Amino acid sequence: MKLSDYALILRPGAPVTDIQYLYGRQESLLQLHRSLNTPGIQPLVTGDRGIGKTSLVRCYISHHSSRYIWIDCSKNMTFEKMAQRVLSKAGTALAEIEQTQIRRSDGKGEMNFGLFKGNAGIQSEEQEKHRIASPDLSSPDLVLELISGIAKKENIMIVLDEFDRIPIGDFQDLFAELLKNLSNHHQDCNVKFLTIGIQSRATQLLAAHPSLERCARELYLSPIKNNDLEQFIDKVETDLGVKVEETVRRYLVQASGGFPYFIHLVLSKCVEMIIDSERTDKTIYYADYKKALESASSQAYRSHAARLVAFMSSPEGIEYKILNYLAIQKTLRIKTASILFEVRKHLDCDEKYAQRIVEEGIKNLLINGIIYLDRNDKVVGFIGPLVKLFIAENIRTSNRSDDPFQGHQKPLL
Question: Structural domain of residue 162, as residue ranges?
């Protein structure tokens, strides 16, 4: 493989689709396979952004050659729109859906929507059919019948990616009812819904609909282990013909926090610099890593990169001090009282002054979308784990010379 083909391996902007480049997920692939092959179970793949949820599912589909319908969710998606897209991708023209009026000899009637004929086992009946231009797809029962008709001959997996983008509301209630109906009628319907999203949204869905617990199985993706990340870097070196300096390798693994996106993005920037410089030495040095990290951070958070750089280039500013303090904590959520305590301790100022400057700093960071504030619990945190990783590593590298083992990190506050 040529160095210029690096995008086939390092894919920060797209999910991994080749299973040979999916490291540390063998157990997760097995769990997903079991869930998809267990009658009545609808899997939910969850985890933080950048952890590799979509890559896991894409690799599974590629490896097992499953028939699937892929739906990218959006903030404007409704239950009806989801059903329309599923039917459309399955090749079903909504205008051809038939409404069947079944008239029985006992005088009772039954209405049936579908792509297939009326219920079996009904004696002495007459059928009158007419086409309807716009079926009511807000009914989970109707949607179940329609997709059952699609999947009569073979199994179909319907993937809802970025499920968390859909606002909380009627969609979740209708979708939960659909999943429960699929579970109850699994013997008649060869359809599996595979939902991908952040864990908090899956937790909300299960909490609001306790009966889902018997049919919805959550598969949470934890950060990848260091040994698996090391093996991925080995694979990159072998296939692209590059050499990752040991110091860079160590920092890549440690700074990633187990998030493959971090390594894919930073290494891709390093390789691009080698290509652009046309140098014969294919070694990735620590100086390359520092430059790549700065470029990667700007790309990852382009919408507020300028402000973020401004904050991080001003060590004396309260925003920098808050970012620094948050970045080295082991948890994502920190009590505002803890930040206030650190400010008073290091600046030797009264509580009123410390509270004013902390509130000002938090407000500036909130406006720029770098942190969030939970006013009920009085805690702050980064908007996501990846933000913390990039900021922590940028602060660390800015406090070191080209020799990363010289000197120590600057005082926090």
Answer: 25-91+138-220
